[in-house]
Amino acid sequence: MSNNRELVSIIVPVFQVKEYLGDCLDSILNQTYSNIEVILIDDGSTDGSSEICDEYRKRDDRINVVHMPNGGVSRARNEGLSMKRGELVVFIDSDDIVSACYIETLVSV
């Protein structure tokens, strides 16, 4: 396993996923590899996802949130890439749940 603790940027495009977003973000924030930044790109959600993003931002300073008009997942991902500070980048869909060792495993490969 790598001893290097590089910053990993996790980009999460968010659109109309209120029902799933909390579980997704909890799984990301509970990683065994903690040197992460989470970039949430709210792509014009109108279902309450935007408010969930803002609430999680208040809870954890590793989270950055951008609210933008709906432009599609590719534009959201590109916006996240323009903001990333990490040497390594991971995309996670906002309706996914990742295992606690997901980032640790990716970094160690």
Low-confidence stretches: none
Alpha-beta content class: alpha/beta
Shape: globular
Rg, alpha carbons: 13 Å
Strand content: 15-25%
Please report the total strand number as a whole number: 4
Q: Percentage of helical residues?
A: 25-40%
Quote the distance from N terminus to C terminus.
8 Å
Q: Output the strand order for the largest sheet.
A: 3-2-1-4
Order of helices and strands: EHEHEHEH
Number of helices: 4
Mean pLDDT equals 95
Largest sheet composition? 4 strands, parallel
Overview of the structural elements:
- The chain is of the alpha/beta class.
- Helices cover 38% and strands 23% of the residues.
- The protein contains 4 helices and 4 strands.
- It has helices at 18-29, 49-59, 73-83, 102-108; strands at 8-14, 36-43, 63-68, 88-91.
- It has a 4-stranded parallel β-sheet with strand order 3-2-1-4, sandwiched between helices.
- α2 (49-59) links the parallel β2 (36-43) and β3.
- α1 runs parallel beside α2 (49-59).
- The mean pLDDT is 95.
